[in-house]
Structure formats: structure tokens, C-alpha cells
Amino acid sequence: MGEYSIGDALKGFINKSKLRNGLRAVQIEEIWEQLMGKTIAKYTDKIEIINHTLFIHTHVGPLKNELLYQKKLIIERVNEAFDEKVITEVVIQ
Questions:
Q1: CATH number belonging to the domain at 6-92, selected among 1.20.144, 3.30.300, 2.60.120, 1.20.1630
Q2: 31, exposed or middle or buried, with CB in 10 Å at 0-12, 13-18, 19+?
Q3: Could you give phi then psi for residue 81, rounded to 5 degrees?
Q4: Residue 20: predicted pLDDT
Q5: CA angle, 52 as apex, 69 and 14 as ends, to 5°?
Q6: Measured at the alpha carbon of residue 55, what is the angle toward residues 50 and 57, in degrees to the nearest 5?
Q7: Rounded to whole angstroms, how far apart are CA atoms 87 and 18?
Q8: In what order do the strands lie in the sheet with 46-50?
Q9: Half-sphere exposure of 51 (CA within 13 A, CB side)
Q10: Mean pLDDT of 9-32
Q11: How much is the mean pLDDT over the chain?
Q12: Coil, strand, or helix at residue 92?
């Protein structure tokens, strides 16, 4: 049996467990401002990932419209930030 560091063992466990999606949901909230900028982050009420879909909640009408046009860019930025295909769809609410 090979030796693993605790970090490697935890990464392996998380990658195989159902906790992975929950961790991604927390991580997206932490990096949202870096990905989209301060203004968008300021007016975004809630961000969540459910089954490879990113849900963005905002009460600002013009921002909803702008985000609709940026769906493809949002998907690319999020997947690039996680270095894997985390989301495939974006829903603005």
C-alpha cells in the first residue's frame, strides 16, 4: 500500500464523494467577485450550483439582462477557475 499525504487523501475522498458539489457551491461564492467584478458581485443576492447549473439571483433588472448576454462567458470563467467542467448552464433569477 502506498503512502499518501493527508491533503492527497482528502482530495481523493472529496473527488469521489457527494460533498464535492457542496464544496463547489461554497467556493463559487468566495471567487464570484474575482470572476465577475465588484459591481456585479455587489448586486448579486445569491449564487448556487445545483446539478451543473449555476443559479444567479439578483433584484436588479438591468443586471439580469446583462448576465443573460454573458451566459457563455460566465460558464467559461467558472469552469476555468475550477480547472474542470463544473457548470454547463446558467439560470438568472
A1: 3.30.300
A2: middle
A3: -65, -35
A4: 64
A5: 140
A6: 140
A7: 16
A8: 46-50, 53-57, 89-92
A9: 1
A10: 70
A11: 83
A12: strand
Instruction: Tell me which residue has cell 433588472.
Output: 61
Look-up: residue for cell 475550477?
A: 82
Instruction: Please tell me the predicted confidence (pLDDT) of residue 15.
Output: 64
Q: Which three cell numbers stand for residue 84?
A: 474542470
- Scanning the structure block, which residue is given the C-alpha cell 499518501? 4
Count of positions (residues) in the chain: 93
- For the chain, give every domain's residue range: 6-92
In the chain, which residue ranges form alpha helices assigned H by DSSP? 6-16, 19-36, 38-42, 61-69, 71-82
Residue pair 27/6 in contact by the 8 Å Cβ criterion: no
